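Consider the subject:
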Amino acid sequence: MTTPDYWPTIDGLVDWLDAQNGRPEPELTLRILKLSEEVGEVAEAWIGVLGQNPRKGVTHRRVDVADELCDVIVTASVALASIVEDPGAHFDKKLRQIAAARPRTP
């Protein structure tokens, strides 16, 4: 990712969650489902940027959307680190596959 301490930070979050809740299948399910909640918060923030809800008007800024997107990335990373042994290597491999499979010309 963007900093050398990214995956150690994620590992620390996973360790904390494991200490609180363990890592049984229902807990893993909830860590994955948490992504839906976070994505909903991105949508809410973007709607707020657009002022799409006439009752509320403009309620958010782009920086709020960026913060919510970061929450999605962290939540996805925690879920990934909870289900694979080396999440950084897994992510890097997948990113290379995506980059190789998707043409960059129209």
Summary: The CA atoms of residues 44 and 65 lie 9 Å apart.
